[in-house]
Amino acid sequence: MSDYRTVNLASWDERAPAHAASADYGVAAFADDPAHLSAVVRYDLPLLGDVSGLRGVHLQCHIGTDTVSLARLGATMTGVDFSPAALTEARRIAALAGAAVDYVESDVYAAADALGRGGFDLVYTGIGALCWLPDIRRWARVVADLLRPGGRLFLREGHPVLWALADPLPEGGVLALEHPYFEQPEPTVWTEGGTYVETEAEFVHNTTHEWNHGLGETVTALIDAGMAVTGLAEQDSVPWEALPGHMRRVAHDEWQLTDRPERLPHSYTLQAVRLPV
């Protein structure tokens, strides 16, 4: 396997400015409306609850719109990402929003070394993050290392069944499982242009390496790392058009399978707390 980190970093560095410029991220709204929150965080609120006064870290924060949103809800936030281009945009957006967010450039697996252990009340991981990581057990240990005893993980992620579907779907929209559901040693390698937002930008770095992680694998990894699972909810929508041509936009800027969406778990929210050592 080639160096997945180098390959993926080239893709993310190239796409971060296009993401920040796209209307899909709504960056201007953060400057125009001091109460504005990202659609992702607005969706999370019923399960997320009150975060005011918490010291939080957002792993794989990308351009930081969710990080700024959590800061606006009263948390003292640190954002972590391995892409310097993404963090350049994140710092610019935080300044536009008037949000005091500390951004740290680090690979997610090195986050506890970069930030220190046991100092956070909240680890937040937004949707579309875990697929870039080859080892879910290693990730879980980082989460546990960052949290103080009693501190909480909040994770919403694309469902591993969704990630395992053929892309594009076969003719007729049949839900066909084509890619691994369980974590594999070798990645699924994608080579495709474009990105998940509307943009006229053309990209050069179009290869990425990705991994799926089964729901049981993720839960077990957290338990083995010293966490207690406190909530697991599966949802029938995701915040992007994951299956182009086969989805409709629904409430909260989410997307849902057009034909019998009850067949597909689209995403899930997993919460856990750090047990006393």
Question: How does this structure look, described?
Answer:
- The chain has one domain: Rossmann fold, CATH 3.40.50.
- 31% of the residues lie in helices and 24% in strands.
- It has a seven-stranded mixed sheet with strand order 3-2-1-4-5-11-8, with helices on both faces.
- Helix 1 runs parallel beside helix 5 and helix 7 crosses helix 9.
- The radius of gyration is 18 Å and the shape is globular.
- The relative contact order is 0.16.
- The mean pLDDT is 95.
- It comes from Actinoplanes nipponensis.
- Keywords: Methyltransferase, Transferase.
- One of its GO terms (molecular function) is methyltransferase activity.
- Pfam families: Methyltransf_12.
Topology (elements, then pairings):
Blueprint: H1 4-21, H2 27-32, H3 39-48, E1 55-59, H4 65-72, E2 76-81, H5 84-97, E3 102-105, H6 111-115, E4 120-125, H7 136-146, E5 147-158, H8 160-164, E6 188-191, E7 207-210, H9 215-224, E8 227-235, E9 247-250, E10 254-257, E11 267-274
Parallel strand pairs: 1-2, 1-4, 2-3, 4-5
Antiparallel strand pairs: 5-11, 6-7, 8-11, 9-10
Descriptive labels:
single chain; 277 residues; alpha/beta; Rossmann fold; 7-stranded mixed β-sheet; two-stranded antiparallel sheet; 9 helices; 11 strands; 31% helix; methyltransferase activity; Methyltransferase
The first-level CATH class name? Alpha Beta
CATH architecture: 3-Layer(aba) Sandwich
Radius of gyration: 18 Å
Secondary-structure element series: HHHEHEHEHEHEHEEHEEEE
**CATH homology superfamily name:** Vaccinia Virus protein VP39
Q: How many β-strand runs?
A: 11
Please estimate the helix content: 25-40%
CATH fold assignment? Rossmann fold
Give the overall pLDDT as a whole number. 95
Main sheet: strand order:
3-2-1-4-5-11-8
What is the CA-CA span between the terminal residues? 36 Å
Major sheet characteristics:
7 strands, mixed
- What's the shape? globular
**Structural category:** alpha/beta
Number of helices: 9
Strand content: 15-25%
